[in-house]
Amino acid sequence: MDPIDFTFLNRADVEALALTDDEILAAVEAGLHAQGNGQTVIEPRVHLVPESSAKGHFNVLRGYVKPMGFAGVKVVGDFVDNYKRGLPSELAILNLFDPETGALRAIIDATGITEMRTGAMTALGAKHLARKNSRVLGHIGARGTAYWNVRLLDHLFDFDEIRVHSRRPESRNGFAERLSRDLGKPVVATDDWESCVRGADIVVEASRLPEPTPMLRTEWIKPAAFVVPYGTMSAVELSLTDIMDKVVVDDWGQCRKGLPYGALRRHVDEGKVTEENLHAELGQIVAGLKPGRESDEETILFWHRGLSLSDIALGHAMLEKAARLGLGRMLNFA
């Protein structure tokens, strides 16, 4: 058998790559474009719950992006109490394969990828679905993906006001301080959900609830706002979709009936959000097959579950940049 070599990028390598905001957004948008044009395969994620969902679980995401020449599998743990051990709540690894032979091509520390691609999906949703003059951001949650939500959204919109909230004061205050330092502008940590969300032009809900609880009230949502709920456990009221002119998802296959978890799980299971009344998948909008926001009066919701193709797209971008910079190690598989 001929030797099979693969590239290994550890966390230090990924950090040394220092992908710019524009590089992150371009990679994920390229993946969405491929999806919209039917050049991807996305298998619904599967879950492994070792003990109870209150402690945490593993997500396994699988996909293929034809223009990038990779199939990929990412395994990501999501454990809410990891902060007590000095660990990120989400730890991940991405495996990339040659889709022609099945040979391993790369193993990449995907903890950063998970955070970046989630933020990029939120920001790209806003790029196509939020009002261009959106000035106020309200963000619930301070976990790893939250940083990239706010950073990449602000990169596109340069907000006048950013509000953040999370359950623990030390978490939300530290989050606001980090963002203020990195973005070079004030970020306000609010004491409650309502003061964070009410009147915001863009609302992101990335909470960490142990079970579905309607914490985000529909009445707080400003007309013409853009709303992104994506907590594993739903934090929204059933009435939220009633005020929406459009509901967009990243991939209907991961949102349909019969699957666990997700912000709109009950809405789907009770028939309030269906394949028939769904406006579009974001990839269709990016590829120009369906319209995004069509007026400043529309109130729009974007529900993203997390796409394997976004992990693969960022992994592809990292491998290309690593090759240019001489980062990473080549290892022998067989």
UniProtKB/TrEMBL annotation:
InterPro entries named in the record: NAD(P)-bd_dom_sf, ODC_Mu_crystall, ODC_N
Gene3D superfamilies (UniProt xref): NAD(P)-binding Rossmann-like Domain, ornithine cyclodeaminase, domain 1
A UniProt-annotated Pfam family: OCD_Mu_crystall
Domain of life (superkingdom): Bacteria
Name the record gives this protein: Ornithine cyclodeaminase family protein
Organism: Azospirillum oleiclasticum
